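Thanks for the sequence, V.! I ran Reverse transcriptase domain-containing protein right away. Repeating your input here for the record:
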Amino acid sequence: MVMERSREFNQPLHMCFIDLKKAYDSVNRKTLWRVCRAYGLSQKIVRMVQLLYEDTSAQIRIDYDVSESFAMNTGVRQGCILSPILFNVYIDYIMKQVIQQANVQGVTLSYRLGDFWLTDRGNGSHKVHLLTLMYADDIVVMCDSPKNLEHFIKVFERVTNDFGLSMNIQKTCTMSLKQFEKTIGKNETKGKEKDASSNIVIRDQNIETVDNFNYLGCNIANDQTQAKEIEVRIGKASNAFNSLRRIVWYRKCISIQAKVRIFKACILPVLLYGSEIWCLKAVEEQRLNTFYMKCLRTLLSVGRVGRMRNDLILELSGQPSLEKILRRNRLMWFGHVNRMDNEEDRPMLPEKVLFSSFTDAKRPPHEVKLRWKDKIAKDLTMCEIKNWRREVQDKEMWRKTINKEVKSTTVRSDAAHVMHEHKERAKKRRTNERLLDYNKKMNTPPSTTTVINVDATCSICGRTFKSKRGMNIHKRVCIQKQSTNASTDTKTNEMHQLTTASTSNKNTTTKNIKIIDLLIKKDKNQYVCPNSMCQKILKAQGATMHVKPCAKAWLIEQGVQI
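Predicted structure:
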């Protein structure tokens, strides 16, 4: 939300993603007990927690060898349910000290709760200052200038060292949001972007500046595009899907209903992780939908060659379209944020940021990209939600409204029968297409094309074969013979007489006739097939083998014994 607002109003935004080196193992326990007392915990509770950490020891195991135990005097216990809470208290106290000493406000936004989207950023709006976002030891610092960001990081590095923690310079990165040129000259294009980089030095080492960063499993880009995030999501979902191919998807003993449930539990959450805040283009949505439909086709054992429509795939599997799932996720998060109120019915920070904007800021003279709030406004219209303020407060009613079009139905009972019929039709279509391609190569007229049946019996001569492959090979020759006979129907009687004469008079002269000598010779030792429907240019080698089956009637006329 903050990055979207900054880009919309062309405001500078500089961020630093801080990584702490072995944060949980570097906590100073004596300082931790004092921090707990400073937060109001009684001495009895602090003493009870302190007893859990007395005489703690650890061992190192390498393969099957275990080292001797040694004492552990720092850090919180690994695997203990109290460790995350204790660390949150510890890092919160440190951040308060850093903010107090740095005296930096960060990014200043204004919000008003009376309107859906803030239209009047003047009088009556409240201020909200965003400086840090923390989730355990993952910390993001946001400032409106590189100077303030550098000052805050240096103060943070000094204070954390006093409390026993240390920054990992190699894994700490900075990122600056791209801005548009404010001045438009004769030689400058409208909407031209510029990079606002920052150079921060800590311990004589430069902090790396990146264009993309993976924060809490989501890819954040400095140009506010989701192309990299979609690529990562599809890659991870594809790996998860392929790992279950032989185990689940290719097993015929597992029902389609069970496969769909496994897909929804194991693959779909990986694919749509973080989709609540996505603002995708049509191309990016199409990439996601292509992968989604590809997975459903695999569950139903229907390939893309089968040409089954997407709506039929969704109907057979009982699943909603991906567009409806994305709409449901956005509205679900939108309703959750709007219900975030504290004990005094005051909005919490996520709701403030959702309805916030920059004070006295104007949009630059360029086209504004599609925003998340534009997606929400469109989703509310698609779901026919008129009074969203009232409906969003009722959690159950809101859930029913947004899940109205996303409810999964059971797999059709005749799904197996429908898929079997579709596969048979696809086989016939592919066979006929191959036959048409062959006839085009052999210059056979379309009138001689015959539709091949499913059984292994030739529809022309009635010959039966053991396999369809053998029948298809035979039929090519059979169709060719039929076309040759059709072109010579007017000379059937003469052919019969010549055949009788050639069989009765087996003299030595007919036996010695060479077929190559009877053919019409062209330049460069090339010959022409005497079949009027073929007329293929032949070489000396192989001409005899081609003419014998192709121009059988012509050879009989010439008195050649076949």
